[in-house]
Amino acid sequence: MTTAKKVLASGISEQEAIARAQQGDAECFEALYGLHKRRVYSLCLRMTGNTAEAEDLTQEAFLQLYRKIATFRGESAFSTWLHRLSVNVVLMHLRKKGLPEVSLEETLEPQQEDGPRKDVGTRDNVLAGSIDRVNLQRAVESLPPGYRIIFILHDVEGYEHNEIAEMMGCSIGNSKSQLHKARMKLRDLLKQSKAEKAAGRR
Amino acid sequence: MTCAEFQKSLPYIIDGGGTEEEQGHLEACHVCSDLVADLRYIAECAKLLVPMEDPSPRVWTGIEKGLQQEDMAKPARRSS
What we know:
The structure holds 2 protein chains of 2 kinds.
Chain A: H1 3-9, H2 14-22, H3 26-48, H4 51-68, H5 78-97, H6 133-142, H7 145-156, H8 161-168, H9 172-201
Helix pairs in contact in A: 1-3, 2-3, 3-4, 3-5, 3-7, 4-5, 6-9, 7-9, 8-9
Chain B: H1 3-13, H2 20-28, H3 30-45, H4 57-73
Helix pairs in contact in B: 2-3
């Protein structure tokens, strides 16, 4: 039985585990790790696209949790607080790498979308009903880092634009604009994948 | 309103809002309405990407080592 399960099977609620971890209870801290590692790791993996980096960042996020857990006051859900902490760990790491995604005021790609979309074709070309998890995962992994981060923060993780703007140090308008570009790029990738699949069947 | 004008506003209205003119264009133009449908569908499908993977055991090993180092670096508590 994992430590997380043992702690919770003994009748200790997560809230109690947090309180005990704040007092230095190592087993309860490990239980919190067990409960939240998947979500933190998945976030890190999606934002970096790299397994080794994601593992290092997960480790760093939980070490930061250890340092800061005493400051958690319960004003938000613990998972929300930990999630936010994890996002900040990833963003700090990306800033240190000097990747362009942290300057969202700049265009990340040459402007290919200057003209309006005038998709020629029948209405069968719409995506509805054609996306599965695997294809979407692949498409997200193919996104440029800046687009990927915004898409993950907003559409996957559910942050609002004002929260993203605060985290990324950009304007709300910029966050919306970058999200739109991310979705447009995904649309192109998914349509391409759909067309390739259809061609493969012929 | 042209498609170019509508699509320029789209980032700011797709999740709600928009003028009557923009709404009118959306209702009348199948190209832009298909585009909006696709983008909303993609946003909705993002929910498919639920956390599915655990980190390898080495992550907890690294955390344990880090915690030990942090504890060693702390000043010893005086017993009351």
